[in-house]
């Protein structure tokens, strides 16, 4: 409270409060979902407010005590519990998970909890597989593990890459439940929430179950209206916790200066991860420690259907920020960054320089790497030069010469170098990510225009999806009939043996590639890649029709 400030601190606090209020001005006015926001500095509250409506249906407003989903910010809570159980001798994070999950095929069961926690296991992700084949249809609780057990191929060899993976955290959750012989919700409450006095925090595993005092999530539509956000599956340690501002601030403060566990455990969670090739990612066990404009940050964001979260600390400045939104068009990580910048604006290093939009004239278009099967495109997105990777626009930053950079939270880090021929025309780009360099040749638009999808047309089947697929060449489309629902995609040819896919449902932002595989005369096979699913085989076969 203000009475605890000195006069100098009072004046400074008022200035800071005004800066923070200016950031939140975009939520001024009633009639729309909003956010809950808490900013603390030096242990004192500078901002603790609710903005907008908790529910369009009820008309209730967001308050500091409103409960909201924190999405993937849950992940480090699950990691904390796993490490506590390890220190009690109840589990190992370095043994094959088949010890606790014998149902997994041998190729999947050899992974470790450590690899699941730092996203280097290389297994496929149940959530991506379900969205890919079922769309936003609600699936039963057992579906997640069923998808994991169906997988016999990998995204990559364990430790070779970092690909964000909710499936690994679902399996981590199941191991904890089997070790303790209790539901994860009960385990989190007994081991974490109750000891810390987090009485308004719980694992809320299904949007179909009521949670008193909670906000609804809302999906923004292009016309300015909102739909109801419902997560299409049960959620556990991968993203199921709901909490309040005060509880999350209490948790964050304890994470940085723990009393329930040794400081070494918190430090272990923040330790970076080294890949097999020596590349180091700042992602630890459900947490990221990175340098942002000269400031050391500890954070992890989260997202659900119709909401986002960011939990962030700048320990050297004694700043803690929690932002949770209940609308899909307001990103909590961006808001948290703006709030932090408002407090530290005079001490921050300059922001990276955006790439010159005029480069679209020389570099714009599609690129493909035959060796890796990766497709990239350089586009202008609302005036910003971006590299599109599996449909996600990544803002490019200016480097030296023909080199551009991408850095999102120090986790998505790429270098893009344009390669020119003797006439000075860009004919390829070299994309470097996680220590791997990929030569991507430019695909001429006029060459694409002459291509058809005839060679992709037909009926296909995927045992790992449990799905039948129908592809039509005119117009280019793919329909997947999954275990629980269906999804449809637009197809566009890229090369004679490669086409691009994008989901027709705007609520499922999936994009990727299909590649023809196999020698002439052999049974046809397609290989499907998305951001979180790699090398998924579709074999020629029957379909649901």
TrEMBL record:
Molecular function as annotated in GO:
hydrolase activity
For whether the record's keyword set contains Cell wall biogenesis/degradation, the answer is no
Record keywords, A-Z = Hydrolase
Mind telling me which InterPro entries this protein's record contains? AmpC-like, Beta-lactam-related, Beta-lactam/transpept-like
**Which residue intervals define the domain Beta-lactamase-related in the entry?**
28-341
Q: Which domain of life is it from?
A: Bacteria
The name this protein goes by in its record: Serine hydrolase
Q: Which organism is it from?
A: Rugamonas aquatica
